[in-house]
Amino acid sequence: MNPFDKPQSSKLVLITDPFEKTPLDENLFDLVIRTSSANSAREDIASSVFNICMQISNDSPIVLVAHERSGTLLPGIGSGLRASYRKLIGYVFIDGNLPTPNPVAPPNAQLLEHYFDSIPLTEDWPNAPVLYIQTKKDSNIWVEQVKVRGWKLINDEISKALIEVRKLFSA
User: Fold this and answer.
1) Cβ partners under 8 Å of residue 93, min gap 6
2) Residue 39, class by beta-carbon neighbours within 10 Å (0-12 exposed, 13-18 middle, 19+ buried)?
């Protein structure tokens, strides 16, 4: 790498929630990875890592952004990116479920089994700064955990919050 080259700007990569009824504006992100309810969580993680590595250059810093239930996939995707020698510099949850060491599916959660596929957390997770964007009141259960963990909380509409995220993670 040439020391006189301008550093790459961070790339916001959205991991979608296949069950989300109100999808986010994809133009706000540098790359959108669509997960599928037909795949297992492990398949979605492997596919996400592959697609990110194929579409973002090695020297670009990456910020993983999860919307709602796809938040449970971020530790696995992050581990895969680190194993691929990618510059993972942050995690962002948008009204999202946070990963837990032993996820337990709520009763009658057949549609949600995809997200409770026992993805083990690595001991060093989170291995980059974490932010949580809250736009809905029904994500208050996760906001309490964000506060306990000392992560940054942003209460704003998504487009404004992502401007702040880009500033915080600028290279």
Assistant:
1) 65, 66, 71, 74, 130, 131, 132, 133, 142, 146
2) middle
Helix ranges (DSSP H) in 17-73: 41-55
| pTM for this predicted structure | 0.84
8 A C-beta contact, residue 57 and residue 83: no
**Nearest in space to 154 (alpha carbons), one of 134, 125, 169, 130:** 134
Question: Within 13 Å and on the Cβ side, how many CA atoms surround 21?
Answer: 0
CA distance 89 to 20: 26
The dihedral through the CA atoms of 59, 60, 61, 67 has a sign that is negative
User: Going residue by residue through the chain (171 aa), what tens digit of pLDDT does each one get?
Assistant: 555 555 578 999 999 988 877 788 899 999 999 988 778 888 888 999 999 999 999 989 999 999 988 888 899 999 999 999 999 999 999 988 888 765 555 544 544 555 545 466 666 778 899 999 998 887 778 888 899 989 999 998 999 999 999 999 885
Angle, alpha carbons 10-77-155 (nearest 5°): 60
Q: Which helix (H) or strand (E) holds 83?
A: helix 74-83
Beta bridge partners of 65: 14, 92
